[in-house]
């Protein structure tokens, strides 16, 4: 029987905070109450909780209490490995110890990842078909490096107790890891696999089914929600932390692709298992695709060209013939090696067939507003051939039906209320007609006193030809006033590198640029030396946590709108407009507001932090959409006077 005599969540929070040597915060208490109310009312909840609120504790305490009461695990989903590790290595162990005496038992927890993240014992020891035979695409030294990684994985495989890729330090590249892992589709299944009894992925799933809290990621959460076979243990409550990333992560999971590599892989895997003439038909279709993609211009494919339609139909039909020629899917029960080869072939063929079908079905709608998916061609790079991709224009319907259907979901982040409202993200999540509440529990920071938001209104609008000289001069003067201690967030890697090259010799402080070394090491170096500056792009907008005097100035070169030629976002804008909405505000401005708020959030990370956010793009002060963007940012003291941030930075430099 579930225990209905547990202490209230607020009381458990107080016990936990005292045990951990902290002090209760108003926003944290408000959030605990809101989460508990959502659980009691079986209602969805969106919580914006600023940095320093203690939101992890605020959702973990009522979640653990519910798990004990319902006798079911709760699922905590994050977007980043860093937050998963923080929860599993720090927050949950300390919380479990603190609450152990107040609850029926000490709370238990486990981390669960996708099958690809675990070493496959059978693949590591058996004659499994190779995933690719494309060493010729790599330089000899790269092949040698991969070979050394393979050897290191083999040695690690003899001693690992979890098979978790993240425990292999230093890490290995994808090419090496693929030789030791399988996808869920390729897996033979625990009952048929000779190594099923000692399968690392199955052991992780088994542990997850016995604990109170399962920590996972948005991708696996999406796979569990969208798939027909459950991946996560049965649960009736989910907490989505870093919820501002949910739509992008779900979109990535349901995006499919076709390329010469995926088609050639299907040919290789099926080649020795069926009659040659049938395999040759698929090979000819793969060659047609290769030639077509090599000649086609990159970008969105709004109308289906006849030659592409014929090629996709040929891939669909020839892959279906190969599937039929393979025979029943459950065959070869007594020959695991043959079963593994056939399962790998079925997986590759299904991917080609289903993606070709999906791409063909993306066309033929009566109007733009009826279109459900977009197809685009991504051009070749030095390391891979052209890729044809297909993705949904909206994942809200999937999330509404599959994730929010029969469970309570709490979504939280420091950035959810865009333009001062939760409605934008709620629409993207598909929550429009569901019962849900949105609450902003605030921040422990006094933003108007701790930070200045300076918009360089006097600068020219950013152009497409790189950073204007006026921008470089502005950056140099601000950094000199700050004495270094600057995080430069740029809208592109090209802009970050150009600024670094132009200013490295001009400034009298060390200047690091993303790409000089691993991002983790660069951030560490930046944090340890107060004079150092760090320039970079997307991952720095959301992944940097540097409290203290090493970071006093965050420079943002331009409002981070998506690229106008980005196939998915431009198609989504057009789709919203076709339905009578404002495509620019719904898609582009929402994207920019989210990223801008995340970037501005790098400044204040601890209670005594102070500094300046400098946005060089004057549109933040002058454009018609500026009030929406400004309404998405914390309430810093605002100015467009260049003298004010310089004076404040010089004063801070003296005080520190």
What's the tally of helices?
26
Structural class: alpha/beta
**Relative helix content:** 40-55%
Distance between the termini: 58 Å
Radius of gyration: 26 Å
Question: How many strands, which pairing sense, and closed or not: the largest β-sheet?
Answer: 7 strands, parallel
Total beta strands: 18
Task: Tell me the strand order in the biggest sheet.
Answer: 3-4-2-5-10-1-11
User: What is the 3D form?
Assistant: globular
Uncertain residue segments: 132-141
Share of β-strand residues: 5-15%
Mean pLDDT: 91
Would you kindly provide a written description of the structure presented here, covering whatever features stand out?
- There is one protein chain.
- The protein is of the alpha/beta class and 656 residues long.
- It has 26 helices and 18 strands.
- The strands form three sheets. The chain has a seven-stranded parallel sheet with strand order 3-4-2-5-10-1-11, with helices on both faces.
- It is globular and about 80 Å long.
- The termini are far apart.
- InterPro entries: ATP-dep_Helicase_C, DEAD/DEAH_box_helicase_dom, DinG/Rad3-like, Helic_SF1/SF2_ATP-bd_DinG/Rad3, Helicase_ATP-bd, P-loop_NTPase.
- Its EC number is 5.6.2.3.
- This is DNA 5'-3' helicase.
- Its cofactor is [4Fe-4S] cluster.
């Amino acid at each position: 029987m579930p225990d209905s005599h547990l202490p209230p969540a607020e009381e458990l929070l107080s016990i936990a905070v005292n045990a951990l040597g902290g002090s209760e915060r108003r926003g944290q208490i408000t959030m605990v109450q809101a989460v508990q109310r959502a659980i009691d009312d079986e209602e969805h909840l969106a919580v914006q909780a600023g940095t320093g609120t203690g939101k992890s504790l605020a959702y973990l305490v009522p979640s653990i209490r519910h798990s004990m009461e319902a006798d079911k695990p709760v699922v905590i989903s994050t977007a980043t490995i860093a937050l998963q590790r923080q929860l599993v290595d720090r927050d949950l162990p300390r919380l479990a110890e603190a609450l152990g005496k107040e609850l029926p038992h000490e709370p238990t927890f486990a981390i669960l990842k996708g099958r690809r993240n675990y070493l496959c014992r059978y693949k590591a020891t058996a004659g499994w078909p190779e995933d690719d035979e494309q060493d010729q695409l790599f330089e000899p030294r790269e092949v040698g490096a991969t070979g050394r990684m393979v050897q290191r994985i083999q040695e690690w495989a003899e001693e690992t107790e979890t098979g978790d890729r993240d425990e292999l330090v230093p890490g290995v590249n994808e090419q090496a890891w693929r030789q030791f892992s399988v996808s869920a589709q390729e897996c033979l299944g625990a009952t048929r696999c000779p190594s099923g009894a000692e399968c690392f992925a199955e052991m992780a799933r088994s542990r997850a089914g016995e604990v109170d809290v399962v920590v996972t990621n948005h991708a696996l959460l999406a796979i569990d929600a969208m798939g027909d076979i459950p991946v996560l243990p049965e649960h009736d409550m989910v907490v989505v932390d870093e919820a501002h990333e949910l739509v992008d992560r779900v979109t990535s999971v349901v995006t499919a692709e076709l390329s010469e590599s995926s088609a050639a892989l299907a040919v290789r895997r099926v080649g020795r298992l069926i009659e040659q003439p049938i395999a040759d038909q698929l090979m000819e279709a793969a060659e047609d695709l290769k030639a077509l993609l090599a000649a086609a211009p990159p970008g969105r494919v709004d109308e289906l060209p006849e030659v592409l339609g014929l090629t996709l139909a040929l891939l669909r039909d020839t892959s279906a013939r190969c599937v039929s020629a393979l025979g029943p899917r459950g065959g070869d029960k007594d020959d695991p090696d043959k079963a593994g080869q056939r399962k790998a072939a079925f997986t590759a063929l299904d991917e080609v067939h289903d993606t070709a079908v999906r791409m063909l079905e993306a066309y033929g709608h009566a109007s733009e507003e009826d279109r459900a998916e977009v197809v685009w061609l991504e051009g070749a790079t030095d390391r891979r051939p052209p890729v044809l991709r297909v993705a949904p224009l909206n994942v809200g319907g999937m999330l509404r039906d599959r994730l929010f259907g029969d469970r309570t979901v709490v979504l939280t982040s420091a950035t959810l209320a865009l333009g001062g409202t939760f409605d934008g993200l709620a629409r993207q999540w598909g929550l429009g007609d569901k019962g849900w509440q949105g609450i902003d529990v605030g921040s422990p920071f006094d933003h108007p006193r701790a930070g200045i938001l300076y918009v360089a209104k006097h600068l020219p609008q950013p152009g497409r030809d790189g950073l204007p000289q006026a921008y470089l001069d502005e950056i140099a003067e601000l950094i000199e006033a700050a004495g270094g201690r600057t995080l430069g967030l740029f809208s592109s890697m090209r802009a970050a590198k150009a600024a670094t090259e132009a200013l490295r010799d001009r400034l009298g402080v060390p200047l690091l640029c993303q790409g000089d070394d691993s991002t983790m090491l660069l951030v560490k170096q930046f944090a340890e030396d107060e004079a150092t500056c760090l320039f970079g792009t997307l991952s720095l907008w959301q992944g940097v946590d540097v409290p203290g005097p090493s970071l006093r100035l965050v420079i943002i070169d331009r409002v981070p709108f998506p690229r106008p030629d980005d196939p998915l976002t431009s198609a989504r804008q057009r789709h919203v407009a076709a339905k009578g909405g404002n495509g620019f505000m719904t898609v582009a401005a929402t994207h920019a507001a989210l990223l801008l708020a995340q970037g501005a959030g790098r400044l204040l990370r601890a209670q005594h932090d102070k500094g300046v956010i400098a946005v060089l793009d004057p549109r933040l002060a002058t454009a018609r959409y500026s009030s929406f963007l400004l309404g998405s940012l914390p309430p810093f003291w605002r100015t467009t006077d260049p003298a004010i941030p310089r004076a404040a930075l010089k004063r801070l430099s003296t005080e520190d």
